[in-house]
Write a structure and sequence with these properties.
about 200 residues, mainly alpha, Helix Hairpins, minor pseudopilin epsh fold, three-stranded antiparallel beta sheet, 3 strands, about 10% strand, globular, binds manganese (III) ion
C-alpha cells in the first residue's frame, strides 16, 4: 500500500486565527507531502511494503531510520489534521471528560500538564495524550517518534516542530500549545480514539 496524502478535512483558512492559511499551505501541502514522497521511495526496497501503516511504523523503528522518520511522520500528520477543527476546544464528550478528570484530577490540570509537555520537548517533536495499560497518560517524543513505538495508543497529539507554529507564533511555543488545546482540538475525534484504545 502506497502512502497517500489526505486532503485536509477543512479549508486551509478554516483554523484562523489560531493557525493560518499560510501555515497549513506549508505544513500540509509541502511538509506532509514530502514525508509521503520520501516514505514511498524508501518503501520500494523494504520488506515492509504492503504492510499496514502502523506495521510499517513499528516495524521500521530502530531498524530503518529513514523509512521510520517519514512513515511515522505520515502517521502522525494523518491524525494531526483530524485532531483539529474550526471552533475547536470547548466541551469534551462525557465519558472522555470523566476519564480525563479521573487521570489528572481536573481538566485544567490535564491541559496544564499537556501544555508543559509541549513546552519542555527539547527541539522538534510531539506531545501527546495516550492510553497505556488502560490509563490516559501524557507523553512527549522527539522528531517523528510517537506513542505506538512506546507501547501506547495516541488519542491526541500536537506537533511542536517549528514548521507547525513559527509563521503564526514565532518563538512563542507556549502560546501555540495553549491555543491548540483551548481553541483547536476536535474532542469528538479524541473520544472516538479513546473508546477504541480503552477497550
Ligand atoms: Mn509537522
Amino acid at each position: 500500500m502506497d502512502l497517500i496524502l489526505p486532503d485536509l478535512p477543512y479549508a486551509h483558512d478554516a483554523l484562523q486565527p489560531y493557525m493560518s492559511r499560510e501555515t497549513l499551505e506549508y505544513h500540509h501541502d509541502k511538509h506532509h507531502m514530502a514525508y509521503v514522497t520520501n516514505g514511498n521511495n524508501l518503501l520500494k526496497d523494504s520488506d515492509l511494503k504492503g504492510k499496514s501503516l502502523e506495521e510499517i511504523v513499528t516495524g521500521s523503528f530502530g531498524k530503518n531510520a529513514g523509512l521510520f522518520n517519514n512513515a511515522a511522520q505520515h502517521y502522525n500528520h494523518m491524525l494531526f489534521w483530524k485532531w483539529m477543527k474550526p471552533n475547536g476546544g470547548g466541551k469534551i464528550p462525557g465519558k472522555l471528560e470523566k476519564a480525563l478528570i479521573d487521570a489528572f484530577g481536573s481538566l485544567d490540570k490535564m491541559k496544564e500538564d499537556f501544555i508543559q509537555a509541549g513546552v519542555t520537548q527539547f527541539g522538534s517533536g510531539w506531545h501527546w495524550l495516550a492510553v497505556k495499560d488502560g490509563k490516559i497518560v501524557i507523553m512527549k517524543t522527539p522528531n517523528g517518534e510517537n506513542p505506538l513505538v512506546h507501547g501506547a495508543r495516541p488519542i491526541l497529539g500536537n506537533d511542536v516542530w517549528e514548521h507547525s507554529y513559527y509563521i503564526d507564533y514565532r518563538n512563542r511555543r507556549p502560546d501555540y500549545c495553549k491555543a491548540f488545546i483551548e481553541n483547536l482540538v476536535n474532542w469528538e475525534f479524541v473520544a472516538e480514539l479513546y473508546d477504541a484504545a480503552a477497550k
